[in-house]
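Quick one: co-fold with fe (ii) ion.
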Amino acid sequence: MQGKQDTAQPVAMTAQDAQAPGAGRRQFFRVGGLFAAGLAASSALAPVASWAGTPSTSTAQDIAILNTALGLEYQAIAAYQVGAESGLLQKPVLDVAVKFQSQHKAHAEVLSSTIGKLGGTPVMAKKPSEYGFPVASLKTQADVLEFAAGLEKGAASAYLGAVPQFHNKDLAKAAASIMGDETMHWAVLLGALGKDPVPAAFIA
Ligand SMILES: [Fe+2]
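Sure, here it is.
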């Protein structure tokens, strides 16, 4: 039945999607029939699901989770901008930071697009100064790397918490894919700091 708001078409990620940085990635969160009738009536969002709260039971709650993720991505983009502009990062670390920022931009793009396709309103990015970053304490490259590593660890943890909260399993899969990327970022930054890049068998 097409009219049910929570019925989704399969949105499996293909290998091509996973490798293509452009159009393929934008199709990553294809949501097919999610927008059939009924969704518009849910503009009064149900209580927003927190990362660690009860599982979503509606598309509206999935949208809320996606918006939380989008906010985190915007925060990361801003953080890498601060790091890149600090003058403290030397090549090749600077190049790595810019690359990671571009991947966060890719995450934000698909999250925002998906929220829109689901009938939601994507949150907006703040100004870097509005995130309360500890800019004054960033005095060395290692300081910046520690700061970024902490955010990456937090992002991986946030996505880990989000995955089982989604009502739509395709969104859970997509979030798990991003979680993998965030975990790689964290590991690379730990390595750049001279720390064990894979400190444990599990992330939390
Ligand atoms: Fe990241």
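If it helps, The pocket of fe (ii) ion is lined by residues 76, 100, 104, 152, 155, 182, 185 (CB under 6 Å).
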